TrEMBL record:
Source organism superkingdom: Bacteria
Pfam families assigned to the protein according to its UniProt record, in alphabetical order: Glyco_tran_28_C (PF04101)
Keywords: Transferase
One of the record's GO molecular function terms: hexosyltransferase activity
Domain Glycosyl transferase family 28 C-terminal: 167-297
The organism of origin for this protein: Leptospira idonii
PANTHER family per UniProt: GLYCOSYLTRANSFERASE, UDP-N-ACETYLGLUCOSAMINE--N-ACETYLMURAMYL-(PENTAPEPTIDE) PYROPHOSPHORYL-UNDECAPRENOL N-ACETYLGLUCOSAMINE TRANSFERASE 1
Protein's name in the database: Glycosyl transferase family 28
InterPro entries referenced in this protein's UniProt entry, alphabetically: Glyco_trans_28_C (IPR007235)
Length: 322
């Protein structure tokens, strides 16, 4: 059985959060019944939440201390193909695969070393001219798109596997001051410190807290309004046609969102530039306006069709089949 290697890091380091891990695992979930899969990650404490998630999903994980160890692993494992999902790339990261004729698929890869990647996937390059640039290659679960009602019954909150900006607590505090018979579903990752919001959970019985739920996709799809950061969950909201308020963790998320149609979601900016009053007014605006929610949802679903995962799987399988 052919071996596919996943080289990925993700955890609680600024900009190197859990999105890399979730994306790689989403791809692996589609391949696990056909191929041998091995994950490789740097042995660093910042990345331990990512390691825990890989282990939780039942995948083999090898930890390396440096790039030289990666070279040795490639010689021992001899993978047929590699998926490389890192925050920063370099020639030394990619050339070991290239020199051994191991085809690779990389994500969000902008420097010159991308010449060593067989399939350079850049979904955030909306105006890019590369073959695999643009939102059609956004790797997210296939949308479920249940029918929405006239009123808001469920509000979805998620600010990434690592809530770097502490947005969860702020948004819960704001929602606590907004009356309404809606349920508030807060989804967090394993690195989230639940004690930070324990007082808010006690004060507001509408809030339910979920940590790494297996039914994440269903919770999101069956919501009527989402308040999210600018990572993969944001793109999943778009594909579901879910009206969304976006509070970005990082500047690069804001820059990507600004390039997109501003008729498809409400972008408030990065967490450190957004006031609580702006969050509150945006929530109230959507709570009271079903027509606006409907308009945002329709425009959002036109931006991201939700088939990016299938496109990436086809690329991988076409290379492995050679």
């Amino acid at each position: 059985m052919n071996l596919i290697l996943f080289r990925v890091d993700g955890g609680t380091r600024a900009d190197v959060a859990m999105g890399h891990i979730y994306r790689s695992c989403l791809i692996a979930d589609q391949l696990r019944n056909k191929y041998r899969l091995v994950f490789v990650s740097l042995d660093h404490s910042d990345f331990s939440p990512g390691h825990n998630e890989i282990n939780r999903r039942g995948y083999s994980l090898l930890l390396i201390k440096d790039k030289e160890e990666m070279n040795s692993l490639l010689d021992d494992l001899k993978p047929k193909f590699a998926v490389v999902d890192l925050y920063e790339y370099s020639r030394s990261e990619l050339y070991p695969f290239f020199s051994r004729n191991i085809e690779t698929l990389s994500f969000d890869h902008f420097d010159d070393s991308k010449e060593f990647s067989t399939f350079c996937i850049n979904p955030v390059l909306l105006q890019g001219k590369g073959k695999y640039d643009g939102l059609n290659y956004t790797v997210i679960p296939s949308p479920l798109k249940p029918t929405k009602g006239q009123s808001i019954k469920k509000i979805f909150l998620s600010f990434g596997g690592f809530d770097f900006g502490g947005i969860s607590k702020r948004v819960l505090s704001v929602l606590g001051n907004i009356p309404g018979e809606f349920q508030i579903n807060l989804i967090v990752g394993s690195s989230f410190v639940k004690e930070e919001v324990s007082d808010l959970l006690l004060k507001d019985s509408r809030v339910q807290l979920f940590s790494n739920p297996d039914h994440f996709n269903e919770i999101l799809a069956n919501s009527d309004l989402a308040i999210v950061a600018g990572g993969l969950t944001f793109f999943q909201c778009l594909s579901e046609g879910l009206p969304s308020i976006v509070i970005c963790q990082y500047q690069h998320q804001k820059e990507t969102a600004l390039e997109m149609s501003q008729d498809a979601f409400i972008l408030l900016g990065t967490f450190d530039d957004v006031s609580d009053s702006e969050i509150e007014s945006s929530i109230k605006k959507l709570l009271l306006n079903h027509t606006l929610r409907e308009q945002l949802g329709k425009a959002a679903s036109l931006l991201v069709d939700g088939n990016g995962l299938n496109r990436v799987i086809q690329l991988i399988e076409s290379a492995v089949a050679k």
